[in-house]
Each structure stands twice: as structure tokens, then as C-alpha cells.
Specification:
The protein has about 180 residues and is α+β, with helices and mostly antiparallel strands. It contains 4 helices and 7 strands, in the order E-H-H-E-E-E-H-E-H-E-E. Strands 1-2-3-4-5-7-6 form a 7-stranded mixed β-sheet, sandwiched between helices. A hairpin with an 8-residue loop joins strand 2 (about 70-75) and strand 3. The protein is globular and about 40 Å long. This is Ribosomal-protein-alanine N-acetyltransferase. It comes from Propioniferax innocua. GO terms for molecular function: acyltransferase activity, transferring groups other than amino-acyl groups.
Length: about 180
Amino acid sequence: MGAQNPRFSEPLREDFPLESVERPFVRASLRFATPDDLDAIVALEEAFPVRERWSRDAWFHELEADNRWVQVAECPGASGILGVITVQIIGGVADLNRIIVAPEMRGHGVGAELLRAGIEDANSAEADEMLLEVRHDNRAAHALYARAGFTEIARRTDYYGTGVDAVVLRLELAEEDDDDENQ
């Protein structure tokens, strides 16, 4: 059985569900990002339409902010960064601000590894919930988030442009067991 985080009701890391991964699973190595990763992170943005890309300046501020947890995925034998996740934690709320996987690595489990790490970061910071928004037509992301337990709480009409809605998703993080309160 995978490692159990006391604030998360499901097993983490090894047991994260990957049923919909269509290609061979890649065991990515994750680490916290540094300013030296900025160029590689910005290069991942090239896969998106220009109007949906984050700027170099936006990523610089993500890496520098005190309340951001930015991790990158790498793979032994592969060059460069395979993906990145940034989570902003304020009080009891963790916002998954961005998760990107290199196009050639999509469907290999890298996104699941990054999401798992983001959830662990939120648990480590004792967040009560994680929120995110995703394009309504991003089927792969919706499947990943559903497997992790996220549920839809709202829609933002035309958020990404005419006819492209944002779906706001929420994951309730498990409360720590406190034996003192139960006695």
C-alpha cells in the first residue's frame, strides 16, 4: 500500500490511480523548482496558444513568491523538464495555479505525479481544500482530476474566450485525526 498522509483520505504516491494512462507509465523524479529552471518552464508554455500562455515574468514571480510551491518533473535519461506544477497556499486553501506536461509526455503519468505532489504540498501546509480551474474541453485533465477526487463547484462562462468555459473544481483534503478532541 502507498504512503498514507494523515490529511488525505486516499493512498498517495505509489497507489495514485492511473487507469486512464494510455501509454507506458514514466516514473518521473520530482523536485522543487529553482530560478535556474525558468527557461525550461517557459519553454513548456510553447505548447499552448499564445493567449493562454503564462509569461516569463509570471513564472518568475511564481518561483520567487513565499506562498508558492513549484515542482518540476524530470526523468533519468531524458533531457529537460517534463512538467511543472505550481500551488499557491493561503490559509486553508491551496490553489493549483498551473500544471503543464510536455506534449510528448502527456498520457505517461507525469501529470498524475505532479498532481500527487501538489496534493501532498497542500497537505503539508495543512490546507483544508484544493481549488483549480480547467477548460471545459480539456478531457484528459478532467479525467485526471476526477480520479484524484475533485468535484465541480462552479463554471465561468467564456473565461478562456467566447465559448470556452472554465470549470472550477474542488478537492476536500482530509482532516487530521486528533485523539485529544475525541476523548
